Amino acid sequence: xxxxxxxxxxxxxxxxxxxxxxxxxxxxxxxxxxxxxxxxxxxxxxxxxxxxxxxxxxxxxxxxxxxxxxxxxxxxxxxxxxxxxxxxxxxxxxxxxxxxxxxxxxxxxxxxxxxxxxxxxxxxxxxxxxxxxxxxxxxxxxxxxxxxxxxxxxxxxxxxxxxxxxxxxxxxxxxxxxxxxxxxxxxxxxxxxxxxxxxxxxxxxxxxxxxxxxxxxxxxxxxxxxxxxxxxxxxxxxxxxxxxxxxxxxxxxxxxxxxxxxxxxxxxxxxxxxxxxxxxxxxxxxxxxxxxxxxxxxxxxxxxxxxxxxxxxxxxxxxxxxxxxxxxxxxxxxxxxxxxxxxxxxxxxxx
Length: 351
Prior knowledge:
Elements: E1 27-30, H1 47-57, H2 67-73, H3 79-92, E2 95-103, E3 109-117, H4 124-138, H5 150-160, E4 166-170, E5 179-183, H6 192-198, H7 200-203, H8 211-226, H9 231-239, H10 249-259, E6 282-285, E7 292-293, H11 304-307, H12 336-348
Parallel strand pairs: 1-3
Antiparallel strand pairs: 2-3, 2-6, 4-5, 6-7
């Protein structure tokens, strides 16, 4: 006769039908670096939390993790019990609810809600590092274009450049000799300083310069432009107040370029452009109320109001003529008749 071996560890309730899955991108996510599953998992938890944790641990990734869905699959516990158990499991370090921003870079952006589960209990620092890494992985890599591999994007600028006197090689067909075609270097036009000097003769015939004269004076004229002067100001400075005759146009223009050189302006202090605040692509979410926030603001996966224990409810004051601080609860939490009687007594007092 076979002997049945019983284990002290709680077993996960068996599902009578396949567990419902969340929408793509939502639902359960298994955390990395978990210990192998053993019968001693969750043995330090209370019975209810141990049973629900064993059930969640066996769910596949992508399974729905809402309280109502879990309660339907756990006949022993209602929605309130499941919500309390999830809060306890978050405090114990087994799960965190996270909002992740997916998409962007020209495409649609949407928030997805995921419940990260770890069979091994983790501390707040470990969960904060996981959430930060999740936000980095959900974003698009900087510098990469959507739909273009990084290697192809890096090679594109190299292929676009054509070196001077390059040769384009045409891939030969079988039995056909290789054909090469020389690609001429792009023609470079005269500079703005050269053109300004060449047009002086059109402005005034006394300053007509040859091509060789313009080439000699081009560095001085380029320095004018580098110091903020434009071609119109340069021409005005060289042609204003000319003598009756100019024996050497090149010497005259050289002297004026040197004598009337504008001052070099100090480079203004670069004002840093305002940087946009980085978009957080993953935020923690309170397990109980769902409010989002940074991991440091939600220790144990709970916001401050949800971490504080509920204040004890006290009865009505024995002194009908005064209202104490302990008597300041909501009417639903106190004896309604005593509350109404106290109000009537207060209204009957003289002003």
